[in-house]
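ping. complex inputs:
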Amino acid sequence: MNEELSTFFYVPVGTMMLAIAFPAILLPTPNRLITNRWITIQQWLIQLIMKQLLSIHNTKGLSWSLMLITLTLFIGLTNLLGLLPYSFAPTTQLTVNLSMAIPLWTGTVVPGFRYKTKISLAHLLPQGTPMFLIPMIIIIETISLLIRPVTLAVRLTANITAGHSLIHLTGTATLTLSSIHSMTITVTFVTVILLTILELAVALIQAYVFALLISLYLHENA
Amino acid sequence: MLSRVVLSAAATAASSLKNAAFIGPGVIQATRIFHTGQPSLAPVPPLPEYGGKVRFGLIPEEFFQLLYPKTGVTGPYVLGTGLILYFLSKEIYVITSETVSGAALAVLVIYAVKKYGAVIGQFADKLSEEKIARLEEFKQSCIRYAEDGIDFEKEKQAVVQKRHYLFDVQRNNIAMAFEVAYRERLHTVYREVKNRLDYHISVQNMMRRKEQEHMINWLEKKVVQSISAQQEKETIAKCIEDLKLLAKKAQAQPVM
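pong. complex structure:
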């Protein structure tokens, strides 16, 4: 498990399939209207997040709502489960994140260019730019557009991996310090606790951010 | 705790597998059997009020009950402690940085559950209660609407029962109107007939009066014609003598 955390491009297939499939157990499907506490809170959280995410879309854009909900839940749950000791977070692998980001980004941009070419091309030039800057701006905006899937994937990977690495390293420091000078392990242990809190927050926030950005790209391109 | 989830998931999976289609290999298309199970899940069994009892938030009570006959109350605790110490001392479980992060996570989780567990549970219960209240309110409003409809209908039926009074009154009014019209016309007829008869009577009266006047005038004219001049003189002298006699008689008697 330790080796898997420190390499980007090593793909452990068996544990990854398990790790990707496991969060589904934590999201039960209710077969009744008034459910138990677990499902009620899940439903409430999903409603809370999705109201924010989907309020900007028109009817056509709302056909993406299931995709966005699934995305948020998957990334959030896998990130959170990755914080458990001896577990594996698939979102630390660039392959997983790229395979999520590239199709989703393409799905927002390519239909936009196909059906509303003028509007999509118009997004490349903000309003009110001076004439002599236009060629530069167009090139810069095109590059920023084309690099979006990479940024989506790398942002998620880097955040989660960095958090895991920090916790791992601080934990090792705690262990090493315990034999050198036992009193300082309180400091490092508190650091580990704080980092864990941060990581919990980051896990959820990154999930939300991923889905939000895809939703924004979708909204831009109609 | 998760063991119960797995058991219940396995139970539902097994039952659904039992009801699902069975496709034997090498069977021809026509004999495939689909949808043999019951398509509905109703009535859904009620949710249990409380979850299963656990100790340390992880180990179900049934485990302790399982070991109770052989090892008494302290059995599972001794087993747990022994296992942990065994794993640690034999380095089957190695203390790594994961242990530290796991310990930190455990501290956080236990703190959060102890502090906010009940609050979150009550919040979830409140959400469910609000949902039930909304549905109940809707149901009550439907029932009220139906009851109002029934009352309205009953009221209208009672009104319809009393409709004959209205018809009787209208019938009486119309009969009176007919009566009045009949009498008016009768009176008009009477008046007209009387007019005609009066007319004839007045014509007759007028004719008779005219005849009388005519006759009187004719008679007077003839009488006046028949009186000669001689007769006239004699008549006037006779009258003067009568008047003188009367004057003497009057002088004889004093005037009262």
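The two ends of chain A are 43 Å apart (CA to CA).
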